[in-house]
Amino acid sequence: MNDSLTAERKSLRKSLRAKRRALSGKDKNLYAERLAHNVDCWLHLRPSWRIALYASRPEELDTTPLIEIARRRGCRIYLPRIDRHSLGRKMQFVEMSSRQRSNRLGIIEPEGSRIIGARWLDVVFLPLVGFDSRGVRLGTGGGFYDRAFAFRHWRKVWHTPQLIGLAYSFQQVEHITSAAHDVLMDAVVTEKGVVRCAIG
User: Fold this and answer.
1) How far apart are CA 151 and CA 133, in angstroms?
2) Which has the minimum average pLDDT: 27-31, 62-66, 83-87, 111-115?
3) CA distances from residue 41 to 69, 122, 188 in whole angstroms, order as listed
4) Which residues are bridge partners to 79 per DSSP?
5) Could you tell me where the beta strands, DSSP code E, fall in the chain?
6) If you write DSSP's letter for every residue of 80-119 in order, what string do you get?
7) Is the Cβ–Cβ distance between 158 and 87 less than 8 Å?
8) In this structure, what CATH number is given to the domain that contains residue 33?
9) Which of 56, 57, 74, 99 lies deepest, with the highest CB count within 10 Å?
């Protein structure tokens, strides 16, 4: 990315993260429950599905209610893990288990060995800082998800797995200038409902 785009994203990221931190604990819990309900009503999670979720940090939208629903529906749940031994520090998806650890960024990761390739997931729920109606995602700046799903750039019709952002409604902005490496989302679910993205 060029310097102006980097600065633009840094400024937007700062303001949206401040809004997120300003939410009360009560509102965070309420919105997380509503969002999980919206996901379930829209997607009708199925036992055969292989889904990826993320273990939320305190500042992020809490995924615990959605993980609980996915477990009840019999989904196979995978969490991201950064492969510290790979060139470029690639993201892996490891089946959720009781054995977990915190990485150097304070993110909870599974310790299991059941790894699935990103291409074979059915649905991936992504964390984000901001998004627009085209499906451009503003993350924390690490680029892990964009690298993991870069293969979608070469698919013209078959856009799988589904990439679905999880966000508070106030995280939607009018426009985010996209970069060449950005992998667009198919939809974003908020506490207010589903935003279907106009990919392309």
Assistant:
1) 22
2) 83-87
3) 11, 17, 14
4) 94
5) 50-52, 76-82, 91-95, 100-102, 108-110, 115-116, 123-126, 130-131, 137-138, 162-166, 187-190, 193-196
6) EEE-TTSTT--EEEEE--S-EEE-TTS-EEE----EE-GG
7) no
8) 3.40.50.10420
9) 56
Q: What secondary structure letter does DSSP report for 51?
A: E
Is the pLDDT reported for residue 200 higher than 60? Answer: no
Distance CA 84, CA 121 (A): 22
Owning domain of residue 159: 3-196
Given a contact cutoff of 8 angstroms between Cβ atoms, the answer to whether 164 and 128 are in contact is no
- Domain tally for the chain? 1
Tokens representing 159 are 């856009």
pLDDT per residue as tens digits for the range 132-177: 999 999 998 888 899 999 998 887 666 689 999 999 999 999 999 9
Residue type, 170: F
Rg (CA), the chain: 16
| pLDDT tens sequence across 58-102 | 889 999 999 999 999 999 999 998 876 655 568 889 998 756 666
Residue with token string 């785009």: 5
